[in-house]
Automatic annotation (TrEMBL):
InterPro entries: AB_hydrolase, AB_hydrolase_1, AB_hydrolase_fold. The keyword Electron transport does not apply. Residues 59-284 form the AB hydrolase-1 domain. This is Alpha/beta fold hydrolase. Keywords: Hydrolase. GO terms for molecular function: hydrolase activity.
Length: 316
């Protein structure tokens, strides 16, 4: 994670953005996305889901997005990459995007159980689950708590644990300041500017930058803090290696939020081959749309190979 000086930088950006007027914001133009709908999960609530149809015969893909984001922000290009190949489903987690607004505090295990309930409602018996950043812990918890539903895992830019160093502990303490800035009206671009470098946005997003910022602003301030706190407490080191499930890992080699050695530790625990995006940071889904989507596609193909030869493991 960034060194403590990042806190000063983020605080400066917060002050700059807090004064941004609504009239400064251009009209949002959304990109083409698969159809979205609200799905009711029995005894849980309603979730917003985007679905892309595909032929039968191979496990569908369930996409789990990261902290501060939404399904369409993380997976905009990934939908396109699998078009015509297989069914793809993505949901917005609690307090993120158009996800449910529960009274109870945000918990990663609840997100995992939401995903399991969604698969059951949609009649999906087993899925390959791809989880970016925070979606990685959710995917691991889904596999641990509902193994019958998970055919394979594709973690991306994520880790077994997120809170080991002093710099990381300082970063997590900054969450309350970030939440306050959003509550005070720093607005749609605050979280987005903290999440990635606007100067590196992929050309495919160029017509949609206002929409992009607005999507980040959908994250509830309370969920921003509570989800960050949950991530700071997450630690799958004692149990991840026991999952014994086909997996392939997408590693962002210059990740300033989840160092590559931390990502590789997860890959080792899962005995997963690595797909390396060596020059990419944590914002790869937005700054390198096609390369990130290709890496996810390759990882899913490796999981397919492992499923076809269950006695062995696919190799990159």
């Amino acid at each position: 994670m960034p060194d403590p000086s990042a806190v000063r930088l983020y605080a400066t950006r917060l002050r700059q953005l807090a004064g941004r007027r609504p009239s400064d914001r251009p009209t949002a133009i959304a990109p083409d996305l698969p159809p979205g709908r609200v799905v009711s999960l029995p005894d849980r609530g309603d979730v917003f889901v985007r679905e892309q149809d595909g032929p039968d015969g191979r496990p569908p893909i369930l996409l789990l997005h990261g902290w501060l984001a939404s399904a369409e922000l993380n997976w905009f290009g990934t939908f396109d990459r699998f078009e015509g190949e297989r069914r793809v489903v993505a949901l917005d987690h609690r307090g993120h995007g158009r996800g449910m607004h529960p009274v109870d505090p945000f918990r990663l295990v609840d997100c995992a159980d939401d995903a399991a309930a969604l698969l059951d409602v949609l009649g999906i018996e087993r899925a390959i689950v791809a989880g970016f950043s925070m979606g990685g812990p959710i995917s691991l918890l889904l596999a641990a708590r509902h193994p019958r539903l998970v055919a394979g895992l594709v973690p991306a830019s994520t880790a077994l644990v997120f809170n080991e160093t002093l710099a990381e502990r300082l970063r997590w303490r900054f969450i309350r300041l970030l939440e306050l800035g959003v509550r005070l009206g720093a607005g749609d671009r605050l979280v987005a500017r903290l999440a990635f470098d606007w100067g590196r946005v992929d050309e495919r997003f160029a017509p949609h930058t206002s929409w992009l910022a607005g999507e980040f602003s959908r994250t509830l301030p309370r969920a921003l803090r509570e989800a960050g706190t949950e991530l700071s407490r997450f630690d799958a080191r004692p149990w991840a290696a026991d999952l014994d499930i086909p997996a392939a890992m997408v590693v962002t080699g210059r990740d300033s939020l989840v160092p590559d050695h931390r990502q590789r530790a997860l890959a080792a625990a899962l005995d997963a081959p690595e797909i390396l995006l060596g020059d990419q940071d944590h914002d790869a889904p937005i700054t390198a749309v096609d390369r990130f989507a290709d890496a996810i596609h390759r990882a899913v193909s490796l999981v397919d190979e492992a499923l076809a030869a269950p006695a062995g493991r696919a190799s990159a």
